[in-house]
Specification:
By secondary structure, the protein is of the alpha/beta class. The chain has five helices and ten strands, in the order E-H-E-E-E-E-E-E-H-H-E-H-E-H-E. The strands form two sheets. The chain has a six-stranded mixed beta sheet. It has a four-stranded mixed beta sheet with strand order 1-10-5-2, with no helix packed on it. The N and C termini lie close together (6 Å).
């Protein structure tokens, strides 16, 4: 029986990404220690590299064995808004500081996806398109998908103007349900990152409300 482990780091684990220096030694050490605590090797992990320089924020990449360790020590990996793998023992990691990190698990087809659902992606229906990708490439049944969501900023401090001022989670839930995910299969963290100092918030850092910049991370791995 295939199982999935979903892990979310906190500020006490240290930052999992430095937006100014992707090869930051302290960040790499934080990753190693956090993963090792959960019996995952950093060299068996691939990081989602989000790139805001383009115009498409619904790009998906199938991570294979040759992708292991990519993005864990540097920034040398293809930009993508989500990574997918069918390999047991291959961990996928997404650093986030305000956006929603989502894990999708299709047990029947032995597939996991770790998707970045930030403002840019949600404005392009990234929640729905993530699932459409799984349906198209793996024949996933959305009704059986299990979904995990990270903490995110509250609607009052981070409305998405292009989506009628919906909050991150509000837009995410709307898109997932529209795509056929069952509400009872969504495991949500109700924590607001702008209010809980156990999680990083880039927007609160920019406002001067947080002393340090950084990212927590969501990691998913399948085991047999």
């Amino acid at each position: 029986m295939t199982r999935v482990s979903v892990l979310i780091s906190t500020t006490k684990d240290g930052s999992m990404y430095n937006r100014h220096d992707p090869a930051d030694d302290s960040v790499i050490e934080n990753r190693k220690q956090f993963l090792a605590t959960h019996s995952i090797d950093i060299d068996d992990t691939t990081r989602v590299k989000v790139d805001y320089s383009g115009s498409d924020f619904t790009r998906y990449h199938l991570a294979q064995g040759s992708d292991k360790a990519k993005g864990m020590y540097d920034n040398e990996l293809p930009a993508a808004d989500a990574l997918v793998t069918t390999e047991s023992g291959h961990a996928l990691m997404l650093p986030v500081a305000d956006c929603v990190g989502a894990v999708f698990f299709d047990e029947s087809h032995h597939v996991i996806m770790v998707s970045h659902l930030g403002r840019h992606s949600l404005e392009q229906m990234g929640g729905q398109k993530s699932i459409e990708y799984l349906v198209k490439h793996f024949k996933t049944d959305p009704g059986t998908l299990k979904v995990w969501l990270t903490p995110a900023p509250g609607k009052d401090v981070y409305p998405i103007w292009a989506l009628d001022n919906k909050g991150m989670k509000e837009a995410t839930f709307e898109q997932l349900l529209e795509a056929g995910v069952q509400q009872e299969n969504i495991i949500d963290s109700p924590i607001d990152t702008d209010k809980d100092p156990n999680y990083f918030s880039y927007s609160e850092f920019l406002k001067g409300n947080r002393p340090i910049d950084g990212d927590h991370a969501i990691i998913a791995i399948m085991t047999d």
